[in-house]
Amino acid sequence: MVRLDTNRSGEMEVYVRVVERGGFSAAARDFNMTPSAVSKLVRRLEGRLGVRLLHRSTRKLQLTPEGQRFYDRAVNVLADLTNAEDEAASAVQPQGRLRVTVNLPVGLHRILPIVPKFQAQFPDIDLDITVSDKVVDLYEERADVAIRSGPLQSSGLIARKLGQCPMVIVASPNYLDAFGTPNSIEELSDHRLIGYNFPRAVSEWLFNDDGTLKTIMPGGKVCVGDAESARLLSVAGGGIARLAAFHVRDDVMAGRLCVLLETFNPGGGVDIHAVYVGQGGLMPARVRAFLDFCIENVDLN
Asked: Which of 46, 66, 134, 294 is the most exposed place for a label (fewest CB within 10 A)?
């Protein structure tokens, strides 16, 4: 008959430790328990078995013949249990379809370029990646992981921070030649600031003006639906954009974009998280593999 109300392996482990450590106090320290709790557990074990396992005295513990036989068997049982758990864990190789949604800058410039490396490392995982700045509902889309930027909304999802990406203000040389270079926050009001036509977690542009934080809300003549469109528009001379530094690094190095108002940069950046559906504290091996891989390989600076 199965005893669902009894942790028999736990009782065995405590009993074995009492025998090996030679007393209740030493075993209690190992398990962060009180000596009285350990003694009570052993008495409960003896009561359930109907035999005396230990002779107790003020100086030492002495095993009864039944206690010695139970100790020998318990050691073997615990060893078999450990081996079974190790074998089961090693057999769970990351596999199956992994559905990921990721915003455009991170997806295009950081996730897609490292997919071949992920495939080589985890050949049994089939990736299904959607790159979009649209915030999707993981439950409705049946996605495993979503990579999101900015503050997280309260939800039943579990989040793991991948890093923080610094932000910069940029414009093309052609735009600056035509409209001038802003040298102060106030001068931005005279320029074409590229905004977004959908709600964003971080909509305002943040600046540090001699220790005072200031914000401005972009969006005037041109609004776009995603950060990649904002980058392309700014390269084409359509206005000034605020984008992740890694997103425009190649453009800046090639001279297609210029970084503006660097002395007003507040530092820090936008947090990037991977969120996933919690499953009673358990995480599928394919999800864990992907998150660990991103932590190790995604550079957001």
From this structure: 134
